Amino acid sequence: MTLEFNVPDLACSACVETVTQAVQAVDGSAQVSADPKTKHVSIVTQAAQADIRAAITHAGYTVA
Ligand SMILES: [Cu+2]
Question: Rounded to two decimals, what is the model's pTM?
Fold first, then answer.
């Protein structure tokens, strides 16, 4: 399944890396694409949306 999130705090490529690592700590095979310009994060994963959302939040980012 593909999850779509808006992460307004996503400012640069380091943020993308942080979010990607947080998501992949939940699901190592997750495919994460995130764009600091649009603040849009798209994640292909089998993990539950709530778990992915929690991982991003715990990494210090607000999910809109
Ligand atoms: Cu950043």
Answer: 0.94
